[in-house]
């Protein structure tokens, strides 16, 4: 990790979205929005209402992507690694197919994830010069965690009576996207952390699962999610990891 002044300089000069990345992001956001907007809950299809709902969800998805990818980029720049969102073509087709197959009742998000590029000069002086699994894994995990933090903020606003339906939907989509991003599948964020450290992967993924479980039960607490994730991490280490090693 670099100091604040150096990080500020790197963000100023290297925090960019390339044209190819913007194209991939737009396709991914359009497909994910379609998956969420496919079933708008109306008994009859009304184009105007469906289009308005699509645009609203597109805005929510775009915000979720922005915070997600920005977290990747800032974390990456702090350790001399440039990140870029890459579309997973097969996963995108699977997402569209599942949307039609399940009629929008179940949303599958497999559109892509983060790719890592070594910054030759900015990486100088770092332990294990070059790309390494742990650095890439932590960068991959920070995106879903950013969505978790934003979900906490949106739900706090909803609970305080500020546009509750809208912010509750924002919370739901952020959590949904975070969980699918952390799956240990090819071309998704979670695969990098899974191969870097199973213990870290279990902890980060447990945070998401515990937060969602509490969310379903009507308890909105990131602190309790961290405590329960720590317990799950300890149980995994005792019953699984020790036996593997």
Essential attributes:
245 residues, mainly alpha, 2 domains, two-stranded antiparallel sheet, 9 helices
How many structural domains in the coordinates?
Answer: 2
Largest sheet: 2 strands, antiparallel
The backbone outline, from C-alpha atoms, is globular
End-to-end distance, in Å?
A: 30 Å
Percentage of residues assigned to helices: 55-70%
Question: How much of the sequence is in beta strands?
Answer: 5-15%
Integer-rounded radius of gyration: 19 Å
Uncertain parts? none
- Count the helices. How many? 9
What does this entry look like structurally?
With 245 residues, the chain is mainly alpha-helical. Helix 5 runs parallel beside helix 8 (198-216). The longest helix is centred in the N-terminal third of the chain and has 32 residues, at 47-78. The protein has two domains: 4-196, no CATH class; 197-245, no CATH class. Helix content is 69%, strand content 6%. The two termini are 30 Å apart.
Question: What topology emerges from the helices and strands here?
Answer:
Elements: H1 4-14, H2 19-37, H3 47-78, E1 81-87, H4 89-101, E2 112-118, H5 133-159, H6 164-181, H7 190-196, H8 198-216, H9 222-244
Antiparallel strand pairs: 1-2
Helix pairs in contact: 1-3, 2-3, 2-4, 3-5, 5-6, 5-7, 5-8, 7-8, 8-9
């Amino acid at each position: 990790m670099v100091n604040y002044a150096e990080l500020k300089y790197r963000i100023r000069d290297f925090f960019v979205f390339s044209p190819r990345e913007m194209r991939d992001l737009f396709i991914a956001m359009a497909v994910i929005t379609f998956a969420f907007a496919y079933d708008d809950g109306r008994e009859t299809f009304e184009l105007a209402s469906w289009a308005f709902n699509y645009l609203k969800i597109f805005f929510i998805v775009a915000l979720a992507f922005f915070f997600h990818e920005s977290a990747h980029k800032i974390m990456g720049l702090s350790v001399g690694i440039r990140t870029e969102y890459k579309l997973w073509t097969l996963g995108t087709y699977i997402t569209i197919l599942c949307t039609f197959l399940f009629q929008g009742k179940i949303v599958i998000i497999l559109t892509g994830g983060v790719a890592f590029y070594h910054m030759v000069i900015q990486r100088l002086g770092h332990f294990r010069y070059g790309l390494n699994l742990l650095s890439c894994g932590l960068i991959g995990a920070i995106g879903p965690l950013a969505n978790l933090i934003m979900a906490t903020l949106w739900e706090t606003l909803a609970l305080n009576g500020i546009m509750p339906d809208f912010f509750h939907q924002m919370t739901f989509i952020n959590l949904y996207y975070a969980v699918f991003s952390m799956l240990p599948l090819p071309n998704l964020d979670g695969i990098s952390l899974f191969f870097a450290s199973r213990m870290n992967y279990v902890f980060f993924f447990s945070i998401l699962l515990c937060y969602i479980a509490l969310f379903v039960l009507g308890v909105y607490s990131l602190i309790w999610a961290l405590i329960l994730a720590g317990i799950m991490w300890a149980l995994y280490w005792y019953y699984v990891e020790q036996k593997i090693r």
